[in-house]
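hey so i finally got around to running both of the ones u sent me last week. sorry it took forever, my laptop kept dying halfway thru and i had to restart like 3 times lol. anyway pasting them below in the order u listed, first the sequence line then the structure token line for each. didnt double check formatting much so if smth looks off just lmk and ill redo it

first one:
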Amino acid sequence: QLRYSVPEDREPGFSVGDLAKDLGVDLRSLAARNLRLVSEGGQQHFQVDLATGVLLLDSRLDRETLCGQNPACSLHLQLVMENPLQLHRVEVDVLDVNDNAPQFPKPEVVLEITEVANPGTRLPLEVAEDPDMGSNSISTYELSPSAHFALSINTRGDGVKMPEIVLEKALDREKVAVHHLTLTALDGGSPIRSGTARVIIHVLDANDNPPVCDPPISKVLLEENVPVGTLVTKLNVTDLDEGPNGDVEYSFKTSNNAPGKFMKLFSLDPRTGEIRTKAPLDYEESSAYEIAVRARDKGSPAMEGHCHLRVELIDINDNSPEIVLTSLSSPVQEDATPGTVIALIGVKDSDSGDNGQVHLQVAKELPFKLVSSFKEHFSLVTNGPLDREKASGYNITVKAVDSGSPQRATQKTFYLRIADVNDNAPNFSSPFDTAHIQENSLPGTSVFSVSAFDPDEGSNARLSYSILDNGMQDIPISTYFRIDQDNGTIYTVRALDYEQDKVFQVPVEVKDAGSPMLSSTAVVHVFILDENDNAPIVVYPSVPKGSAFHQTIPALAEPGYLVTKIVAVDADSGHNAWLSYQLQETAEALPFQVERRSGEIRVSQALRESEDPYRLVVEVRDNGTPSLSASVVIVISPEENSIQDFAKSLDLPKSSPKDTNLTLYLIISLVSISLVSCVMFAVVVVR
């Protein structure tokens, strides 16, 4: 806080003070820091020369216009600099110079005095006015020489000098009826200035007792804002005369303290001497009023007395504090360190004493606090970490409360936006996902879509997806799959073969576009679903394509005799690999049958007596959709001298629907348990 002084008569351009030197600021940084001057009164009287850093007078000052009768006259400025943001308070005292001469309210004063007045009688005179203050105000009065009258000067409670004419020698109206005098008011300036008024005193007969005010000078304490019509006081005036000479009438007299202004605020009953308010009183406008009352009787000549009343107002808490937001830095980065200045706030209260003592507060649950910079000025700073993902902005309410009774409060709300920084990595909805796709699907088939979320905003939340080749497969995973970097959809690059690879682990990485870039990964397990794309292969008996397998049996083989067994395999899995065996129908019924599940060929009835061989076509068919099949030709030749192997003679099994269904249920259960076990094993290995 800087303080300078300047006389009121200086011309524009006058150097008031060296701001750069007093603040310790480099001249070259003034323009870069955007130094600007703000006047608290609204009118700009000063300017700053950015080249020299000097505070200059912008317009001629008139102390009397700016401050009136206040003994102290100061202009308050605020000096704001940015980068970093700083606020300095500058007070400039306007010094009074003797540029006003004393002046009487009237150029001619007419007084009356009875000829029977005793020596020592006093005649009050109008007080001269001088807008200047201190030693430049009125210093003394002088009266032109007179044989009957002299000048007496009294000092009032507020320091104002009051001239009175004192009768020193008895009067004789018959000798001199009118006395002409000159009253001169002198100030204490250099050079001395003066003002004069003509004083005409008429000497009257008779009424020789003036009204007397008891006490002649009094003081009344009155609260501001009392209702209009409130009784201030009743003057106590006595006149020892009787009849019209003792009948007193009251009237106001003007004074030098805002002449005539009190007449707009107070009323005087001319008969009773009661003084009442006739307009609201405001302590902040004026804390005291000087009231002069003339008490005149109705004698001939009329005599008058003078009462002086000082009304001092008691301040009440009738003004709410005012909050001024000087500067606000919005938005603020969410990684701002505690203590970062957010705003500069000023408060003021027009009341005085405790009524004008203001306390500023902000809600405790907010991550901000107030720090006092200097009197009535505060800085709002961060008091904890900020997180845009939890709160993208704050409605900050600052409350100002005074110390009056009852307290008065004002609050001001402003919005602070939090700017995002890239402090959150994107996260997948699940670190592990499972997808299924049919083998032999066309390249470009959609497999699965991964999704990630980033709580940041803007470029910090713009995501891109990619597949990582981490060596988990023998061949780079990118040769099997690709991913759309914008939406995370995984597509096949080529057709997949269940018989070659049954499951793939596809590691996916997501990155944001922030700085620094953040990322996370997830694994998608892609299970290949089998298709019936492999026909059964007969492995026994193994015969070239187009050839037949020759088998001999005893000519007397009995029903149930095991001729041979067909063994086939299918590269598919599940129900696509479930095989069934059957004989192709022929025109002639054959004495053989094939077991549907095992592929065993047995004699079903007695053989005919013939040496011709039997030709059987055994078809092996899987359970897929569509069903695929293979066949083998068996040529069975009965021989008479062949010995029957009774170990191969068994009773033909009598199949029933119940046995067939039970076998099917067992197969389904085993396959299901195997698949679940494989999936669980793969998940455990990945984790």
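and the second one:
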Amino acid sequence: MMLRRGFILFLPRLVGLLVVACCSVSIVYMLACTPKGDNQQLALPRVHSPTVKEGYEAILQEREEQHRNYIISLKKQIAQLKAELQGRTEQLKSMQNQYPDPLDIQLNHSKPEKAQANLLAFLRSQVDKAEVHSGVKLSTEYAAVPFESFTLQKVYQLETGLTRHPEEKPVRKDKRDELIEVIELAVGSLNKPDGVSKAKPRLYTASDFVEGIYRTEKNKGTLYELTFKGDAKHQFKKIVLFRPFGPVMKVKNENVNMADTLINVIVPLAKRASKFRQFMQNFREMGIQQDGRIHLTVVYFGKEQMNEVKSILENTSKSANFKNFTFIQLNEEFSRGKGLDVGARFWKGNNVVLFFCDVDIYFTAEFLNSCRLNTQPGKKVFYPVLFSQYNPSIIYGHHDSIPSLEQQLIIKKETGFWRDFGFGMTCQYRSDFINIGGFDLDIKGWGGEDVHLYRKYLHSNLMVIRTPVRGLFHLWHEKQCLDELTPEQYKMCMQSKAMNEASHGQLGMLVFKQEIETHLQKQKLSSKKT
């Protein structure tokens, strides 16, 4: 009885505890599963709110509205992106129409023959755009792209880069590999049978290579002109190659016979008999004895020292059995342009190569060949960049004696510089000189006439070959800038005078000579004390 009564009394308490537990579980479940809004948690239905069912319907309706708004927002963003993409597409089509590909190159791998033909056509168009077959009109003297010359061992360059060496071995691997590839390709082209001659062809090697020049036009490619020894004396083989930023293409393979090509060296002169004697020594050795296909025209101004100059000419004529010279005397003030113009027009023979020269120039027989090879009537004129010698008394001041002239003519940055601002020494055919109009005879005295003629050629369709050459030197001499010169001529003269003395480092040693001597004296005193 007691147990039954106790159980009956405990039963309501147990039921109450179960009800409380069930309510707690329900509350926890509702807290965990109730959906949340974008920014805050949605509240549960409260005691005084509508029923639980109505509360959940309101929550679902609110959530559905949020999703609907989100979908509308996404659709707007997609529409904006489509509009922007359409605008970019129209802009790209407009640019393609404005700048079409000149050859419409389509590298379609499914049609390799067409792709190869298009690429080949493009490369050949690069050859046509570059100055390979003919010159192009240029606005100023600064627009001309200069060549650089090279042999098997050396490169002679204007843009010296970090090394600052006017001549050097091609130490950069890309330049070395490039020139080796070009020479090998040229040799292979020379040894390729032409299919016409039945005679056994000569086998060419790299040792037959004489010299080459090359230049790169940044938007087209690199042009190479290589000269090889020919089948006989004074005969050469010339190979023209072009790299249109791709495989090298052979442009020309021709025989060049220079055996009968005469050079008329024209020298304007006034006084300076001692310099003329030195010039004639060089002319006799290189022009008469080694080359032999040369004529000399001296245009002399005034009468002072004229007899001495004529005597030097006559003595050379007798001793070397040389009759190919002309002496013209003008009774007027010296004008370099007038002298060269008179000398060029005085010639009455066949078309001839003119070499405009000065009395303080030293040239080699190799340069005379370069003069012939780089000129072509109606096609090309040659403007070599010569190597200008520094003052020997400064260069060799620390030596016991100054070396002989031949020993001084070394292309190094300590001995001289490429005279890239000078245009006076030039080779061209007489016909081109006459057709271009010759010199401006209104220019008197020193300087200006050479630049004027150079610009005439640049403005024409002739190709101007501008390259440093290893066989043409300007010998140092003290320069006098006369008061009679115009301000522009006087400025040019003084700039040339400053450039002629010594290198930057050598001039610096002279400026700081006292400081250096003081330092050496201190070093001697210090060594004595120790």
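quick thing i noticed on the 2nd:
The domain at 263-508 is CATH 3.90.550.10 (Spore Coat Polysaccharide Biosynthesis Protein SpsA; Chain A).
anyway thats it, ttyl
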